[in-house]
Design goal:
3 domains; 8-stranded mixed β-sheet
Length: 611
């Protein structure tokens, strides 16, 4: 080294910047240590938080003293231990074969000094009595008393950790933080309470299939022999709410709160070519069961509050969640908690997704999700911009494919959630009751249908009228449930239809069809599903059925009625155009005959009975 050579990064100055490395909170920093443990094939990980009782102004207060993460992984050699405490070094840095959760070589030292001034590591490969030890100390680095990572030495593990841990394996690692000065949570209980939710979500796949068990315990640091004050085992926290058992409040802790939605095998697989290799990105969608939203204020229920903490797109890398990205979330809409999206990608796509070195975010994904491609170039269409990005090998081209898929699916999912809300009101809206005890349209149409049956007209649903009442109700209820109606509303509408012997049942749902409505014969009845995604729904039905207050002005009511009238005219004009476009001859004649036949039945149904 020449006399004028200087360090690229002076350690005593750089350590301060490294402490500000962007960990969201202590739970995310602790997750780095758990990553290392799981990467080292640990099947058991323990988060141990010791606190002391201090007297401040004559009052006893508990304060966090030390935090440790213990695992039964394969341990480290002296060389690997020293390497693990270096910034930017590690054993999983091979760009040609990236795999597993590790990669960046920053986890242990960076996460540790982000929360504490001192980190100590014991690791062993032939019994904990033969543990090797080394450490980093921020103050010593600042004072230039620590020019490098100390060579590992044999050192006994402190008794405090032996007393509180549930067991040390023949191999393993213990990481201890002390002089904790940057953790916002000042008590052991606060660390546990805030970590268990996040840990359960980050490692849900490992917890669900039994690959790892994570224990979280708080204790009195001066009396570890008294045992744990708080002792928990992490359970899966699935933001898609499909895993069971889970940490979701009862009754959804032992049954799925959401249903898988969309795509073959309930997932979409996108193949991305990156660095001359093909990789698969899997996107999974889920949607809240109607039963999970029994009322409009279901978000205030325990399971609704739980879902409110899991809003966003879950980005999963090597089975470990990086982030709940909220780029595609409608922030002001509380119903966003009722859908789930998981994007699962391999570490080989880290650069493409823009994974940060603290594994808390995928920046390129977030940018692609929020980027309005129409603003990227003047005069170009989104398709042209995407095509050009693909030609330029711009990584956004592949990410646009992923984010466009999610956006398109979420559009329909949100409509389905809206339909769930509407169908909760269906019990009232289609309850077969009218003002002043009048006859409902369903009852009136049923009577008209009976008249047509007496005249010899038969329908495909008529055979089901002879079914036993219970079978009728089950068939109708099942069909309604399949349309997204909550079980209690479906049961009520089906029971009412059978009890009142009506032939017609209405329900609302988003349908993947251009039809305004569908007709489904079940249990001797005809279930008419109004397509809430069809423009006619907004123009005709929703605008009329919106609840009005006493303060509504006549002008507003007139506007709504005129809008509905315009919608009806447009429907008739659409039919006229459809008929006009039919080829001369049989096709046009059949269309005209269908209009005439429907008109005759409509005239019969709409004609009021004379006294």
């Amino acid at each position: 080294m020449s006399a004028d050579t200087v360090d690229i990064v002076p350690a005593h100055l750089a350590v301060k910047a490294m402490r500000d490395n962007g960990y969201k909170n202590a739970a995310y920093a602790l997750a780095e240590l758990m990553d290392n443990a799981i990467q080292a094939d640990a099947t058991r990980v323990e988060l141990l938080c010791g606190e002391r009782e201090n007297f401040i102004e004559s009052r006893s207060r508990k304060q966090l003293e030390q935090i440790a993460v213990l695992d039964n992984g394969k341990g480290m050699s002296a060389q690997v231990l020293q390497m693990a405490l270096q910034f930017g070094n590690g054993t999983h840095l091979d760009e040609e074969n990236p795999k597993g959760m590790g990669k960046f070589g920053m986890g242990l030292p960076a996460s540790s000094i982000s929360q504490a001034q001192r980190v100590e590591v014991w690791t062993w490969q032939s019994g904990s009595g033969n543990a090797l030890y080394s450490y980093l100390d921020v103050e010593e680095i600042r004072k230039r008393e620590m020019p490098g990572v100390p060579s590992p030495i044999k050192k006994p593990i402190p008794e405090v950790w032996k007393k509180i841990a549930t067991g040390f394996g023949d191999t393993g690692t213990l990481v201890v933080w002390s002089r904790i000065d940057r953790c916002l949570w000042k008590t052991a209980k606060a660390v546990i309470d805030n970590s268990v939710f996040l840990v359960g979500r980050m490692y849900r796949k490992f917890l669900a299939d039994g690959r790892v068990k994570i224990r979280l315990a708080s204790f009195n640091f001066d009396r570890p022999g008294d045992g744990a004050q708080l002792d928990l085992v992490a359970t899966p926290n699935d933001p898609g709410y499909l895993m069971i058992p889970s940490s979701t409040p009862a009754p959804w802790n032992d049954k799925a709160m959401f249903d898988p939605w969309g795509g073959e095998f309930n997932e979409e697989v996108i193949t991305i070519r990156f660095r001359d290799q093909e990789h698969q990105v899997k996107v999974r969608f889920s949607l809240a069961k109607p039963d999970a939203r029994p009322t409009d204020n279901a978000g205030s229920l325990p399971h609704g509050k739980h879902a409110g903490k899991n809003i966003g797109v879950s980005l999963v890398r090597a089975d470990r969640e990086l982030d709940m990205d909220q780029s595609l979330v409608i922030q002001y809409d509380p119903t966003e908690r009722w859908w789930g999206v998981e994007v699962d990608f391999p570490p080989a796509l880290d650069e493409l997704f823009g994974v940060t070195n603290n594994k808390q975010q995928a920046r390129n994904f977030a940018e692609a999700a929020t980027l309005d491609v129409r603003d990227l170039a003047d005069g170009e269409t989104p398709a042209q911009i995407r095509e050009q990005a693909a030609k330029d090998q711009d990584p956004r081209a592949a990410l646009f494919t992923v984010t466009d898929l999610i956006n398109s699916r979420l559009s329909l999912v949100r409509k389905m959630l809206e339909a769930q809300s509407k169908n909760r009101r269906s019990k009232k809206r289609y309850a077969n009751t009218t003002v002043d005890g009048g006859v409902t349209p369903e009852q009136e149409a049923t009577e008209k249908t009976k008249e047509r049956q007496s005249e010899g007209y038969r329908g495909g649903s008529d055979a089901g009228e002879s079914m036993p009442p219970q079978q009728k109700q089950e068939e109708i209820q099942g069909a309604l449930s399949n349309q997204g109606v909550s079980s209690d509303v479906a049961q009520s509408l089906a029971a009412q239809a059978v009890r009142s012997s009506v032939k017609y049942v209405f329900v609302e749902a988003p349908l993947e069809t251009p039809a305004f409505f569908s007709v489904q014969p079940r249990g001797g009845a005809l279930i008419i599903t109004l397509n809430t995604t069809h423009p006619a729904y907004d123009r005709l039905l929703d605008v009329l059925e919106k609840e009005s207050s006493a303060e509504d002005e006549a002008a507003e009511l007139s506007t709504r009625l005129n809008r509905a009238l315009d919608g009806l005219k447009l429907l008739l004009m659409a039919w006229a155009r459809y008929e006009d476009e039919q080829p001369d001859g049989a096709p046009r004649q059949k269309t005209q005959d269908a209009r005439l036949d429907w008109g005759r039945i409509a005239r019969n149904f709409l004609q009021e009975n004379s006294e």
